[in-house]
Every structure is written in C-alpha cells, then in structure tokens.
Amino acid sequence: xxxxxxxxxxxxxxxxxxxxxxxxxxxxxxxxxxxxxxxxxxxxxxxxxxxxxxxxxxxxxxxxxxxxxxxxxxxxxxxxxxxxxxxxxxxxxxxxxxxxxxxxxxxxxxxxxxxxxxxxxxxxxxxxxxxxxxxxxxxxxxxxxxxxxxxxxxxxxxxxxxxxxxxxxxxxxxxxx
Length: 177
Description:
Layout: H1 10-14, E1 17-22, H2 26-39, E2 44-48, E3 51-55, E4 66-74, E5 81-89, H3 91-122, H4 130-168, E6 173-175
Antiparallel strand pairs: 1-5, 1-6, 2-3, 3-4, 4-5
C-alpha cells in the first residue's frame, strides 16, 4: 500500500501518514470506530477527544509493533470529514532510537574535533578513528531500524485495514491527495 505516493521523503518512510475523506459526521465516525474496536480482539486502543489510538494487543505485539494515531475532524472550509492517520513505532522505541542516533553523532563529532586538534598539534591521533566508527555505527543502527520496520509491516497493514473497513461500514472512504 503506497502510503506516501506523493511525498517520498525519509520521514514519510519512517512514520507513514495518509489522509482519508469520508462523508459522515466526525462524532459518528469516532463512535463507530470505537465500537468496532471493542468488538475486534486483534486491535486494541483508546478514544480520546476526537483522536483514536490504535495498536496491536499485548498478546500479539512485539518490540517493533506499530501504533496508529487517527484524528477525525470536520474542517469548516471542506465539504467532507478528514481522517488523518499517522503510523509509527511506540513512543518509547522512537525516543530510544533518537537517543542512540544523537549519542553516536555527538560522540563522533566531539572525538573527531579532538582528534583533528591532536593531529594538527602532535602529528597523530587515535581519536580521529572514532569518526569512521561512528559512521559504521549509524549505518548499523539504520539497518536495524529498517529490519524492525519489516517485522512490523504486517501489523501496520492490519491496523490500516481495520480502520478502512470500520469506516467503510458507515460511509464511502476515499483517499485524499
């Protein structure tokens, strides 16, 4: 399923987002999705002030299981209701990898600067080798994240399918471009 057909950027690959159009009241759609959520045991989540958080239930989830944030709202300047969806890893996973990337970049930068100063001053430096090591570490973490995204792909597609089928029971659902 091409989530970001029109916007191919890395953030779109990491946290896919898409919008749907429906011809029904936002409150009705939210209530129906919440009802279907209580009936379907393969999807869990909660409803909070026009935002629905969908996720895989704990007995099916693993470290890489995705979460989907769904915002259903009727905007005054549009003649339809907008369903905005954002899929991504759990916040703890997202924060951990952001911290890992930041730590690698900071350590590599500071050791690289220290290594350059030592190299210019004394003619040799061991710290300069931290920079290539940091690049290799960034590549390894990136490949690990890509592998994790592949593991969570089927669950991500299940969450999207659940939302689409729940909304299509009450109204026609169309992709917004």
